[in-house]
């Protein structure tokens, strides 16, 4: 669930790209990078760490030019080496290119094996590097045609931005699984970004979402991006963007994330099957559980209270690469409001339960702080299947809802009761007008080509 951005035809391209990446830091905290292009030369800076740590004024002075692409890394393929940070840069027959990618290519191993057998040498463990080799090996005379040929051998969820020395090519897979939006910068030029929250910070006006199966070409020859429909669209946007990953102030494929999360909370309250208790307050697990908790409180008429306080200097726990780091960050990040919750029955709202370890720690923390009862409510369905389209849950054995029943999970996390949003209610909350990607909940692995 990385973040990508492209800036075209703006003299402050790299700086604007860094600002956009800062706005999308929630999508990846492991590494960040930017490639800019000037006078036929691509310059790249990338490193481990947050955007604010990597891109100071000295770094941005190096990244000159009126076009740039950038990336925040959240690893789903590859390792934690600096070589696995993006953009991925290469020199080939037609010159230089740099690529950023959000998503996951499910046929990466087969493609890599074939490329290796034919003499390719890989520098990283990333699936993104496959595209570099496929493009370089093509015999087509134009980069756009090489990209088309490479994508015909690429299966999975992807948003790519390919930057040459003078052009940018923006591609979204035929299913539109990962989000990507196009905007117009008020200071001049265009921006493409994973989320619209980036547009606000760089003062850009939203134009539209990049269509599933579409390629946009930015070049000096046209005042507006050229649109090429590469593949017939089969629209299946990822429901987990609305549940957890996207920032609440983003609009994903025409739907506001904050509103959909509120709807999830309201629907959860409407269909709560366990009402044999009287809760004193609705308490969100901050921050991603807040909108759903507000929706639940509004619908149930139970007071909303910040019974858990978050330290905002600690990043997101789910996207940490190891369980040890996730456990440590939970302890550092969340603190109970003891004077508020002591002796009270709490109805705690979280956005999802993946491995269950965080939920268990939260319940224990609240009871240790004096809560009389902790009733746990989850504003999404049970996650029973791994996602191969960009969410880092590759091992089904890690998913608590695969291993345990709801009652067993309730006992494991030591809650007094536990309820989830159903799949039908999730679709109703987001909107029944689309066929969403729900593979984490229903095991429908629909990507085949």
From TrEMBL:
EC number: 2.4.2.14
Cofactor note: Binds 1 Mg(2+) ion per subunit.
Signal peptide: none
Keywords: Glutamine amidotransferase, Glycosyltransferase, Magnesium, Metal-binding, Purine biosynthesis, Transferase
Top-level taxon in the UniProt lineage: Bacteria
Domain Glutamine amidotransferase type-2: 2-221
Keyword Metal-binding: yes
Catalytic-site annotation from UniProt: 2 (nucleophile)
Pathway in which this enzyme or protein is active: Purine metabolism; IMP biosynthesis via de novo pathway; N(1)-(5-phospho-D-ribosyl)glycinamide from 5-phospho-alpha-D-ribose 1-diphosphate: step 1/2
Enzyme class, spelled out: transferase
Stated role: Catalyzes the formation of phosphoribosylamine from phosphoribosylpyrophosphate (PRPP) and glutamine.
Alphabetized NCBIfam families for the sequence: purF
Name of the molecule in the record: Amidophosphoribosyltransferase
